């Protein structure tokens, strides 16, 4: 049975990805950091629909915690076959004049350090099996470059380069590495956003609607499937046509 580890999966896009993969027959290990109830609710929903899931609480930016978490998953439901790097910390626009290096380091920890720690934790097993799959969750900000978000854009851009370099290095070993890049996809943390902001953003999109978590999850499920066995190093935008690439 194939095992998928989805980080940051107790809510929002991560939770929808977990549900979608479970629906495709994956045993899903949901990683999360704080939201016990959210993770438990996602696991319960997956099991209610006949799927298999396990909640795993650990800090993806801590090397010791990552290794312990990956080992626990292997001991409980089996070795990890797929990693979906979705976890993120608090976000928010900050003008350059008000930024500190901590703003950058925070995002680098989630979008560079965490994927690095996770791949190192599974790689010996994957190399021996000549099999494995990584799907990094990027963002259309790397192409759009919104103002007051350079700390976030820089870290997400690093994830693009990381994806391509890993794909080149790991491809000969049967391991694929791809990126799925959502546009603005409102979730619970966007509650309170003015309708005018939604309307303004929709006017920039050829499809004239905002994305929903299921849009992203569907593409992740495809990239995780056998249909994508011959695809690696690519960036799949899920942004209503805003960037076209």
Query: Which percent band covers the strand fraction?
Result: 15-25%
What gyration radius follows from the Cα positions, in whole Å? 17 Å
Mean pLDDT: 94
Number of domains: 1
Helix content: 40-55%
Shape: globular
Order of helices and strands: EHEHEHEHEHHEHHE
User: What is the number of E strands?
Assistant: 7
CATH class: Alpha Beta
Computed structural class: alpha/beta
The low-confidence parts are none
List the strand order in the largest sheet.
3-2-1-4-5-6-7
**N-to-C CA distance:** 34 Å
Fourth-level CATH superfamily: NAD(P)-binding Rossmann-like Domain
- Which fold name fills CATH's third level, the topology? Rossmann fold
Counted by DSSP, the helix tally is: 8
Structure write-up:
By secondary structure, this protein is of the alpha/beta class. The protein has one domain: Rossmann fold (3-Layer(aba) Sandwich). The protein has eight helices and seven strands; from the N terminus they run E-H-E-H-E-H-E-H-E-H-H-E-H-H-E. It has a seven-stranded parallel beta sheet, sandwiched between helices. Helix 1 packs parallel to helix 2, helix 1 packs across helix 8 and helix 3 packs parallel to helix 4. The chain is globular and about 50 Å long. The model has no long low-confidence stretch (mean pLDDT 94).
Per-chain topology:
Elements: E1 3-6, H1 12-23, E2 27-32, H2 36-48, E3 52-57, H3 63-76, E4 82-85, H4 101-129, E5 132-137, H5 141-144, H6 150-170, E6 175-182, H7 195-202, H8 213-224, E7 235-238
Parallel strand pairs: 1-2, 1-4, 2-3, 4-5, 5-6, 6-7
Helix pairs in contact: 1-2, 1-8, 3-4, 4-6
